[in-house]
Amino acid sequence: MAASRVDVRKTYKLYIGGAFPRSESGRSFVVNDAKGKFLANASLASRKDARDAVVAARKAVPGWAGRTPYNRGQILYRIAEVLDSRGDQFVAELVRTEGVTAAKARTYVEAAVDRLVWYAGWADKIGQVVGNANPVSGPFFNLSSPEPTGVVAVVAPRGPLLGLVSVLAPVIVTGNTAVVLASEAHPLTAITLAEVLDASDVPGGVVNILTGTVSEVAPWLASHMDVNAIDLTGVTDPELATDLERAAADNLKRVRRAPATEPDWLATPGIDRLTDFLEIKTVWHPIGV
Amino acid sequence: MNFEYAPAPESRAIVDIKPSYGLFIDGEFVDGHGHSFKTVNPATEETLAEIAEADDADVDRAVKAARKAFRGWSRMPGKERAKYLFRIARIIQERSRELAVLESIDNGKPIKESRDVDVPIVAAHFFYHAGWADKLEHAGLGANPQPHGVAGQVIPWNFPLLMLAWKIAPALACGNTVVLKPAETTPLTALLFAEICQQADLPPGVVNIVTGAGGTGQALVSHPDVDKVAFTGSTDVGKAIARAIAGTDKKATLELGGKAANILFDDAPIDQAVEGIVSGIFFNQGHVCCAGSRLLLQESVADEVMAKLKRRMGTLRIGDPLDKNTDIGAINSAEQLARIRALAEIGEDEGAERWSPPCELPSSGFWFPPTVFTGVSQAHRIAREEIFGPVLSVLTFRTPAEAVEKANNTPYGLSAGVWTEKGSRILFMADRLKAGVVWANTFNKFDPASPFGGYKESGYGREGGRQGLASYLKAGA
Amino acid sequence: MPATASTAQGSASSPGIGAYADVTASEASLRRFLHGLPGVDQVGAEARAASLGTRSIKTTAKAHALELAITMVDLTTLEGQDTPGKVRALANKALRPDPADPTCPSVAAVCVYGDLVGSVKEVVGHQVNVAAVATAFPSGRASMEIKLADTRDAVAAGADEIDMVIDRGAFLAGHYLQVYDEIVAVKEACQRADGSHAHLKVIFETGELQTYDNVRRASWLAMLAGTDFIKTSTGKVQPAATLPVTLVMLEAVRDFREATGVQIGVKPAGGIRTAKDAIKYLVMVNEVAGPDWLTPDWFRFGASTLLNDLLMQRTKIATGRYSGPDYFTLD
């Protein structure tokens, strides 16, 4: 009887500033598959990890927002390409973690790729759609254009890959940077996605992914004075959502509230996830000789 | 040769201020049930009228009236709603002198501003939004955008009628109905506006005006049947409102404080820049959330600009708000005057150099001379806190990068000014300044077609333009 | 007696024009200097002028302003059809603008073509100045010799003031030193045998310079060349004087005095027809250059029909009723 090969078990780490550190707290937690069997250990992020992630995200803002929209679109498209090329890996992971059929998993993976492609195309169009020249009554050139709001904290929804991509892509494509708190139920796909991002020319710090307990980490992001906006889509406890929104008021974060129920991520999105994290800047200049 | 301008007072006979005012609910003036309060003329401290205070029950009544009116108003064809707004705009034009005089009496602002700035822009706001009422499907929110419902709106005392217009015109155009609370110290033009609504035969309940202080405003924004909150005022109150509506479905637009940098490069059109500095901080006694209260001067021209600025400040005429030649009127309230004085004293204590042109202030009323502080650093409180008065803090910089860094080094982000004749530098600066409005080679310009609102702690949402309209709509099914 | 001399040397504490000698040393340095002046934002300048125009000048202030404006008028006729008879009539009007009211002051000067200086002088003597346009007015298109001869003729005929035009072609082509040299030469031609000189006003024809940047540059150029006054227009080109153009020139004389200690006068000319307009100009002088300029020595109106409107308004204040054109002389 041949000796069976022993699995190489992977420890999933955090994704902060383009690196994959363990939690500074040294904590980890066990993630089981859909049948309750051990799958892997994941890092249990602490408030200090959240703090580090915000620092990394803030540092990445000028460079990322300063890229041309065309370049950001290219990078999002690159994410789609890499994700597509690793489609089998994600299908397998979804089958194991979600307990869905391979066919259904493939639907979600393909939809995630398509979603990235869709948002990639928005990079150099959103400004045309939500910005405009304003015909003011005087000799002035007056132009309103959207700009990224800055650092956006995202509490990711349960939908493991498609949901995550659907909330992340619109945040970053316009030039924001993100600190994503992965779904408590599905941390591993988020970190696997981080590996895709890492291989896709996404500059370090543009996307930071934390795994752990929403009720522990999200309040630190909601109250953080250097976070500009927070997306509560993945917060399922209404009381926690209210607390987070209240905490977000400390520096008047832009808040996207939690939906009453998990959205159907397969449905075609609107542009509200883009515009929720944009600021309109209006520039005036006299017209004269 | 001296050329003294004789007093040129605008007649106040045109306004008829009643001894007391009630609330405007469901198309009628009714008694309030709170403790009534007095509104005074800040230039003389004379009591102008007794104003009713709306208590929680009054606010509830007003919200109910608005809710009742919402059904008919939101279903009325847009072109018909538009005609009411056009009517209101016309009446505002026809009664513009009356509105301007009343505004100056109640607020203290110079008549030349209420007459030439506030009231004309008020009329323009109603005209602009009237035209939107039957074109909402083109506003960018899909084919069938819908109003939110009842809007609870709370406005400040610095531009009483203008802020009313910024709130009410888009709300009504989109089919919302409103309950508006004017500021405690400046309710009179809002109450005159209520009369204008009656004159326009606006259906009862579409516009309701509840007067009162902070408690009334709190009752309004927290009312469970208010769908949309719009607030202009201090950042502290804005945060309190954001907390109060947490966990509800209420939408909010918050237009809050600012500490705008007005950045002057050495290649600026200096004479126009000096005008921009002056209008940036002394327009409306500096009671302007987007005031250019931090002047950033490039070191190479700092002395020249300061000399010109001081000479220009010497020509500012401070005094009777109703005199057509007055440039700077009265501070709106004793409370605000105390705050300005306190911060100015802090500025001196912290070592900044204080200067005001010689000017005689009237013996009664609330007055503060145009004041400039030089030798100010980023760490000074007068460089960080919103003074909301005619007080300018001057800092210097050496390079564009330093100017950007200093300008953005504030929790606020409402507005900014850039003065340079170099086009590419304007765009460089405009791109990097974290502010909702950037005035390049101009300052303090407003237009109903131009979105206004801030980044960071200056609030969120925009008012004016297509983006402002969107704040009063949701995508339809 | 108005308009005698400017303080060409500057005060003891100021550097004087001499400090700018290197500026006019070469075409290149002059160009660098003029192009280094702060730009003028058109919209901002016009808004400032409009805002000053909203000052409300009433009662005593208005009476004072009207009186002052009358004393500042350069009563002008510059027509091909001018005759000695016509200008003599105008000269009489200049002396006694309102024959019905001896308290009405005389105007500052009568402004005519050079060949008619003598006719005016016969009437006004030394009571009112005589200004002559010169240097191939209004176009300025003639040889230097002609322009200088034109000037000397008028001075010899007794002109107290010379209103010269600049060569706008040279200015717009960027030949600033040429324009400068012309002004210097004309100033020399204003010298009289006794060492005194006719007062020089330099006309820019701002309607042809078009931009406020050009007006500012022309102002500094002329001031550096030693002019006594800077003047907007000939009256033959539209637009002539405007409030914002005058604003830019007032800023220039203000800044020039600050820099050199030398005070220069300003004369808007053409298009100022009503007392209301004139008062707007006086408000602007008061608030931009300052009260030091509020005398006929330092500020003039080049005008013809303006005078009668000033007189009508003056009479309205005195009598309390509106007057009509039939009660004032045509010239």
Query: Count of DSSP helices of chain C?
Result: 13
Name the chain pair with the biggest interface and residue counts per chain.
A-B, 35 and 40 residues
- The appropriate CATH architecture of chain A is 3-Layer(aba) Sandwich
Number of DSSP strands of chain C?
8
How many domains of chain A? 1
Mean pLDDT of chain C: 94
Low-pLDDT residue intervals, each spanning 5 or more residues of chain A? none
What is the CATH class designation of chain A? Answer: Alpha Beta
- CATH C-level class of chain C: Alpha Beta
Instruction: State the distance separating the first and last CA atoms of chain A.
Output: 92 Å
Main beta-sheet annotation of chain A: 5 strands, parallel
The whole-angstrom Rg of chain A is 20 Å
Q: Keywords, please?
A:
heterotrimer; A: 289 residues; alpha/beta; Aldehyde Dehydrogenase, Chain A, domain 1; 5-stranded parallel sheet; 3-stranded mixed sheet; B: 477 residues; Aldehyde Dehydrogenase, Chain A, domain 2; 2 domains; 7-stranded mixed sheet; 6-stranded mixed sheet; 15 helices; 17% strand; globular; Ald_DH_C (chain B); Aldehyde dehydrogenase family protein (chain B)
Describe the overall structure.
The complex is a heterotrimer of chains A (about 290), B (about 475) and C (about 325). Chain A has about 290 residues and is α/β, with parallel strands linked by helices. Chain A contains ten helices and eleven strands. Helix content of chain A is about 45%, strand content about 20%. In chain A, strands 8-7-6-9-10 form a five-stranded parallel β-sheet, with helices on both faces. In chain B, the strands form five sheets. A seven-stranded mixed β-sheet of chain B has the order 14-15-16-13-12-17-18, with helices on both faces. In chain B, strands 9-8-7-10-11-19 form a six-stranded mixed β-sheet, sandwiched between helices. In chain B, helix 1 packs across helix 7 (about 215-220), helix 2 (about 80-95) runs antiparallel to helix 4 and helix 9 (about 270-280) crosses helix 10. The longest helix of chain B is centred in the first third of the chain and has 22 residues, at about 110-130. Helices cover about 40% and strands about 15% of the residues of chain B. The termini of chain B are far apart. Chain C is α/β, with parallel strands linked by helices and about 325 residues long. Chain C has one domain (about 25-320): Alpha-Beta Barrel (TIM Barrel), CATH 3.20.20. Chain C has 13 helices and eight strands. In chain C, helix 4 (about 85-95) packs parallel to helix 5 (about 115-125), helix 6 (about 145-155) packs parallel to helix 8 and helix 11 (about 245-260) packs parallel to helix 12 (about 275-290). The longest helix of chain C is centred in the C-terminal third of the chain and has 18 residues, at about 245-260. Chain C is globular. Chains in contact: A-B, A-C, B-C. At the A-B interface, strand 5, helix 9 and strand 11 of A face helix 8, strand 18, strand 19 and helix 15 of B. Strand 11 of chain A pairs parallel with strand 18 (about 435-440) of chain B.
